Every structure is written in structure tokens, then in C-alpha cells.
Amino acid sequence: MVAELNELRGKIDEIDQTLLQLLAKRLSLVAEVGKVKHQHGIPIYAPEREANMLAARQKEGEQLGLSPELVEDVLRRLMRESYIHENDSGFKKTFSGKGVIVIVGGNGLMGRLFSRLFKLSGYEVRVLGSRNWDEAPKLVADADAVIVTVPINKTLDIIKQLPELPKDCVLTDFTSIKQLPLQAMLDKHQGPVVGLHPMFGPDVPNLAKQLVVYCAGRYPEKYQWLLDQIAIWGANVYAISSADHDKNMSFIQALRHFTSFAYGANLAREGANIDQLIALSSPIYRLELMMVGRLFAQDPQLYADIIMSSDQNIDLIKRYHACLGEMIKLLEKQDKSHFIENFNQISDWFGDYADRFMVESRGLLKFANDNRV
């Protein structure tokens, strides 16, 4: 039996080695694709091409007895790696002139990420920070874009302290709140202004499928090249008003981060055994625990600034607290009928999104389960 098993495993190893050779060949072709895209200014992420390719391979896989889920899992992982290889080839520069980019706070993680992307696209990148602030007038004298990426609590002051910029220089920021910084930039600079918010952390390998939100400020025709550049890097560029942005960020960031903070605080106070929680967790709870733990592996000042950035956030969290109190009363009364009634009302409010989220979450749950030790 052992000999027969070893023989079969040997054949599997041979196939795996062939697969590795094919993967290397595929990635080398991807690098060539990246060069062509770079020459012609084609974004690294092409949603229609990806969707058509997945559908075609799934259909072919079914004819070979392979499940569509397996084909999709393998190809999506390959495509994620492919975007990294395409990224190494550089990108077409959308700006027609010299392209001088000054990143205020460029030594930070997000600043370094965008500095690398601009350099890959042929721009001249200059970093402006506290150590060389006395050189600010010289550094921005011929700038085509000045990007402010500093902590939230310093953003407004930094914008006010900027020297005079060239009239056609684009002034923008990466702050996760938009109304106040956008207004500050409009007051400071009479040229093109746009507010940007990259909806991802600085640890992403590339911008493929990432989201960058923008809030219009002044002279959109003069900052369009910057939005086009971001799109070429593979990101989805989404327009929204600064007021709507901040309202939605109260839910997406402030409330979510606060609930993670509060849940982590409660686990610590209850003395929960994390090792046992992990050992006993279902995939969905493991994901939830991972997201809570992820928060506490990062900069507390950043999350304090996000949560406390506006009275609107505090009011929302207070309303959430009141809602929790109402739901607790249902538990105290053992009122299952009203619990179910509330449950169904909320389910109706989610509508088709509930089923959509059920389907989309399955992939995440499979990933969490695959990584279980």
C-alpha cells in the first residue's frame, strides 16, 4: 500500500513541477503584456477582459470535470500575482509636461507607495516634510501637483502653511475626511484643486481593483490627467461630493473602527483566551476576529483621529449606542417575537443585498478556512 501511495504521490509531484513551469511561463508573458500596456497607456486592470476570461476558462474546466469554483479560485490568485508583474513594467505618464510631483509627507507609508507609482510612470518626485520645510518654496516652484498626505490632525495646518503654488499646479490631499481639507485647499490655492481619498492601506502591492474617491474642487479639466493616471495604475476612480463622502465615511470608517475598538476592549476586559477562540472559531468568526485584531496592530493615533474627526461621527456612535440599548431590552425581556420582527424588518431593508453578500462572503470564508492551522 505504501509503495502504491508513493508512486501516486510521485506522479502528483511531477504534475506539480509541470504546473510550476507553466506558471513561470505565464508570468513571463504577463510581464510582456505589462510592457505593451505601459507603451499605450492601458490600465493594468481590465474588468471586461477578466470577466470574459474567467467565464471561458470555467466553461472549459467544466468540460474537463473541474468545478467552476476551483477554476475561479486558481485564476483569481494567478491574476492577483499577474497585476504585480505588470506593475513592475511601469506605466504610461498621462501628464504631457515634465511632471514634477511634490508629496508633502512623502516619507510616510502612503507617501512612499504613491512616490513609487509616480516614479514608475516617469514623474520627478520630490518629498517635502518637517526636516526640509525651509526648502518648500523652492521645491514647489515648478510643481505640477502637490499632494498632502499627513495625519488628519495636521492636514489643515499643513495646507495653510504651504507656500504659493504655480497657477496650474494641482493641489490635492489623501485625507480620509474631505469637507474641511477641500475647503482649506480652495482657500489656499486659486488653481486646480481636487480632494482624493485612497480607500486602502499602504500595504497593498498595487492599485489593481483598489478604489480612489475624488471630490471635485476647482478646474476639473486641469486635474483630469491625475485621475487618468490613477486609473492607469488600475484603480477605480469614484466621484462623490465632499459632504456625501464624509457622511458615508462615518459609517465605513468611524463607526466600524469604533465597534472593533469596543469589541477588542470587551474581549480584553473579559479575559478571553485568544488561542481557544481561534481553535473553536468558525470561518466567519475567525474573519471577524482577524479584522478586530488587525486594528490593534496599527497606529492608535490614526484611528483616534479618524473616529474623533467630527461631531457627526460622535453623534452617529451615540445613536448606535442607543440602538444597542434597545436591542438589549429585547434580550432582557426574552422577547423573541419582537427580536424576529426586527430581524425581518432589517432583512427587508437589506433586500437583494443580503443574498449578494451571502454569495460574496463564501469566498472569504473559504480563504479563512484554508488558512486554518
Automatic annotation (TrEMBL):
**What InterPro entries does the entry give?**
6-PGluconate_DH-like_C_sf (IPR008927), Chor_mut/prephenate_DH_T (IPR008244), Chorismate_II_sf (IPR036263), CM_dom_sf (IPR036979), CM_II_prokaryot (IPR002701), CM_T (IPR011277), NAD(P)-bd_dom_sf (IPR036291), PDH_C (IPR046825)
Q: Which organism is it from?
A: Zophobihabitans entericus
**What domain of life does the native source organism fall in?**
Bacteria
NCBIfam families xrefs: CM_T, PRK11199.1
Q: In which pathway does it act?
A: Metabolic intermediate biosynthesis; prephenate biosynthesis; prephenate from chorismate: step 1/1; Amino-acid biosynthesis; L-tyrosine biosynthesis; (4-hydroxyphenyl)pyruvate from prephenate (NAD(+) route): step 1/1
- What residue stretches are annotated with the Prephenate/arogenate dehydrogenase domain? 99-361
Q: What protein is this chain from?
A: T-protein
- List this protein's GO terms for biological process: chorismate metabolic process; tyrosine biosynthetic process
Q: Which residues cross the membrane?
A: none
Q: Which residue ranges does the record assign to the Chorismate mutase domain?
A: 1-90
